[in-house]
Structures are given as structure tokens and as C-alpha cells.
Amino acid sequence: GKPHPEPYLKAMKKLDYEPASTLVIENAPLGIISAKEAGADCYALETTLDGSHLKGADMIFRNHEQLLNYLKDNL
Predict the structure, then answer these.
(1) CA angle 48, 4, 23 (to 5 degrees)
(2) Does position 75 have pLDDT exceeding 90, yes or no?
């Protein structure tokens, strides 16, 4: 279980993705830790917690719309 990286590592292995090419979207501190320890980039959404609790993420977005706009413009 989170914050252990195993859940994300298992998913990456099953999907045949390398951690360095994986982006995880999280909304909780333990999920962010899990994703980062698995070697993935991690973006966070302020769905249930404000950004001050999500500081371990590579980027923090206020809502889904902001995240989607960023992804459309940058990926």
C-alpha cells in the first residue's frame, strides 16, 4: 500500500512503461510519495486538500480544467 512504491511499480510493469516516462496524477500526500519513490513524475490536483499538503508533487493544479489545459499545451 501507499506510500510504498509497489502499487505504481506493478502498474508500470504490467503496462510495460518505464518509471522515467510515467506521469502520475495524485491528490494525496501518500500517493505523491508512492509515485515519486517509484521514479515517476507526479502532478497533484487540489481536489480534497489544498496545495500546501501536496508540495512533494512536481506540479500542483487547482482543478481538472487547469491540469487538462496544461497537458494540452505542454505534452
Answers:
(1) 60
(2) no
List residues bridging with 75 in a β-sheet.
none
* Rounded distance between C-alpha atoms, residue 56 and residue 28, angstroms: 10
> How many residues are given for the chain?
75
CA torsion angle for 47, 49, 54, 59 (degrees, to 10)?
A: 30
Beta strand 23-26 with 41-45 is: parallel
Q: pTM to 2 decimals?
A: 0.92
In whole angstroms, what is the distance from residue 49 CA to residue 74 CA?
Answer: 25
User: What's the DSSP call for residue 45?
Assistant: E
And the C-alpha cell for 7?
A: 502499487
